[in-house]
Structures are given as C-alpha cells and as structure tokens.
Amino acid sequence: MPEPLVLRRTDGAVATLTLNRPKAYNALSIALMEAILDELADLDRDRSVAVVVLEGSGRGFSGGHDLKELQANPDVAFRQRTFDTCTKMMLAVTRLRQPVIAKVHGIATAAGCQLVATCDLAIAADTAKFGTPGVNIGLFCSTPMVALSRAVHRKQAMEMLLTGDVVSAQHAAEIGLINRCVAEDQLDAETNALAAVIASKSRKVLKTGKEAFHRQIDMTLEDAYAYAGSVMVENMGYADTDEGIDAFIGKRPPLWSHE
C-alpha cells in the first residue's frame, strides 16, 4: 500500500500535517491538495486541536504545483480544476478555526511559497529558500501573487514575481513573508515552542480572533473598527472571557473551558 499523501500526528492540542511526496519536493498535485483539504475539514471539526503545523517531508517544504501533471493533462478543464482546487485549499487554511503555522525547510517556491504566505504564521530554517519563479518558465505566478501580495509590501512582492529570484529565509523574515528565521537544528524546537504558547489560550477565543483578523483586513478603516467592536462585544459574553478576567484580577492562571 502506498503511504498517505498527508501524514498527521497530534501532540496534545497541536496537530501536525506533513506533505508526503518527498521524491517530488511535495509538488501540489490535485490528489495531494485534495488530501490536505480532507485533513483540514476534519481538523476544523476537532475541538481538541488548538494549533495546526504544516510541514513538508524530505528535502523541502513544497516546490509548488506539479508541472509534470499539468503538462500531461493539457485540457483546459483539468488545468482549471487544478487551480480551483488550490484556491479551495488556500481558503480552507485561512478559514480553519485553528491558527496554522508553516514550518519551512528546504524550498518553498511558487504555490509552495503561496501556501507559506497563506498560513497565519511561518517559521523557517536559515537554510530555507523562497520564490515565485514562474516567470522563468513562462508561467507567471498569478495565484501565488494573491497570497504573496497580501503578506508582504507590494514592491517586494512585485520584485519576487517579476524577477523569479529565490530569496533567503533571512530576507523572507525582513519583508514579512515569515515570522522568524532560525538555525536549522532549532526549527523543531522553535516551532513547537510557538505552537505551545498559542495552544495555551482559549480555543474559542483563538477561533474568534483568527476569523476577525481575516475579515477586517480588507475593510475600510471605519468599517474595520465597527466590525471589530461588535466582535469584542460578542467576545465579552464568552465563559472563557469571564474566567480570563477573573483570573487576571485574582492573579492566578486561567482555567479555560474553551466556551
């Protein structure tokens, strides 16, 4: 039996999904993207999981779309299905109730870079490389552009898109594509530590905050404040909010019910 395209393990309240096409640099075939979608749908229903970590097996995070698959299927319907499935996957990451941390080693290029930009947080080894090199092969990274242009300054995004150059993890951290660049031998520990901090919070509050962040980001300033204010009013009615405020006043750790 072939190995699953996505491996899943859980450690306490942290679930890790591993893209498992190591011989193909975890190229995002339709089958792999559909497997990721299935895992995300299952995690979205799992109230015991607070944080999701996304990583790649083998030598890198992901080299992007499976170009061999796309070349072998020249009909428009198949290619449209590929990019539609990719869009569904990226939106599923954004809409997932749990925050998602990209844990990056090796390369994250094209749609792989898009996936990193889509995740809520990202930590990379100092040896990792990022890029949107589609222009080099005559296929502009138009869908990766959507996530990249929302994660970094537009001029930085345009430079990556127009040149196709691969950038270092250090540069990716400087432009805001990732949160931090760490020594390769510290990647596991740093990712685990960040996930543990987030997992210690109320899961209901994390869900509320992630959803509100992504909804307000494209609103006008006035609309964003009005929306965020209504979210805070609703948030004040949570049982965990009462507990958190009482714990703060009483100078004790909160005991979350996740309600």
From TrEMBL:
Coiled coil segments of this chain: none
CDD domains xref list: crotonase-like
Keyword Lyase found: yes
Superkingdom in the source lineage: Bacteria
GO molecular function, one term: hydro-lyase activity
InterPro entries hit by this protein: ClpP/crotonase-like_dom_sf, Enoyl-CoA_hydra/iso, Enoyl-CoA_hydra_C, Mitochondrial_ECH-domain
GO biological process: fatty acid metabolic process
Keywords: Fatty acid metabolism, Lipid metabolism, Lyase, Transit peptide
Pfam families to which the protein is assigned, alphabetical: ECH_1 (PF00378)
Keyword Transit peptide: yes
Purpose of the protein: May play a role in fatty acid biosynthesis and insulin sensitivity.
Protein family according to the UniProt entry: Belongs to the enoyl-CoA hydratase/isomerase family.
Name this polypeptide is given: Enoyl-CoA hydratase domain-containing protein 3, mitochondrial
Organism: Pacificispira spongiicola
